[in-house]
From TrEMBL:
<dbReference type="InterPro" id="IPR043556">
    <property type="entry name" value="StARD5/6"/>
</dbReference>
<dbReference type="InterPro" id="IPR023393">
    <property type="entry name" value="START-like_dom_sf"/>
</dbReference>
<dbReference type="GO" id="GO:0015485">
    <property type="term" value="F:cholesterol binding"/>
</dbReference>
<keyword id="KW-0445">Lipid transport</keyword>
<dbReference type="GO" id="GO:0070508">
    <property type="term" value="P:cholesterol import"/>
</dbReference>
<dbReference type="GO" id="GO:0120020">
    <property type="term" value="F:cholesterol transfer activity"/>
</dbReference>
<dbReference type="InterPro" id="IPR002913">
    <property type="entry name" value="START_lipid-bd_dom"/>
</dbReference>
<dbReference type="Pfam" id="PF01852">
    <property type="entry name" value="START"/>
</dbReference>
<comment type="function">
    <text>May be involved in the intracellular transport of sterols or other lipids. May bind cholesterol or other sterols.</text>
</comment>
<protein>
    <submittedName>
        <fullName>STAR5 protein</fullName>
    </submittedName>
</protein>
<keyword id="KW-0813">Transport</keyword>
<feature type="domain" description="START">
    <location>
        <begin position="1"/>
        <end position="163"/>
    </location>
</feature>
<keyword id="KW-0446">Lipid-binding</keyword>
Length: 163
């Protein structure tokens, strides 16, 4: 799934809200992220992380956990990105009460809008296998509304950050 939108905030403010860091803002505004923890820092830019999600879709989807290797990078033009993919890690075996999901290569790109310092183009790419025994119709119904909610809630979060 791909999401794309222009947000009314600087790339730095958008990045502050979405960057995948322990104790970051993402768990406060993203209804699909319950907790985020760094399992291992490989370098200043590469981390193994565990993300947990609450139950969703009227509890049809039970809580999930994802373990990913995440790369964060900033380019000379001001674009910031996080890219991730599933990884297994000995310090993070599957936990009880969670279904282990898998992220295939995915990411978020915060791209400056030329000449508009308080606007950011956000591109998101999701390739997620939620795991478990969900009917494909449930998955197909969940993701579009989830992505729409992501952009809506992020817009509110960046506005609150500036207030």
């Amino acid at each position: 799934y791909k999401g794309e939108g222009i947000l009314p905030a600087s790339p730095q403010d958008v990045w502050e809200c979405i960057k995948p860091v322990a104790g970051g803002l993402r768990t406060k505004w993203d209804q699909n992220v319950k907790d985020f923890e760094v399992i291992e820092a490989i370098s200043d830019a590469v981390f193994v992380c565990r993300t947990t999600t609450p139950s969703a879709f009227m509890r049809v989807i039970s809580p999930r956990e994802f373990v990913d290797v995440v790369l964060m990078k900033q380019y000379e033009d001001g674009t910031m990105l996080s890219a991730a993919t599933n990884v297994e890690h000995p310090l993070c075996p599957p936990q009880p009460n969670f279904v282990r999901g898998f992220n295939y290569p995915c990411g978020c790109f915060c791209v400056p809008v030329p000449g508009e310092p308080d606007r950011t183009q956000l591109l998101t790419f999701f390739q997620t296998d939620l795991g478990g025994y969900l009917p494909q119709t449930v998955v197909d119904s969940f993701f579009p509304s989830s992505i729409s909610g992501f952009y809506s809630n992020l817009t509110k979060a960046v506005k609150a950050l500036k207030a």
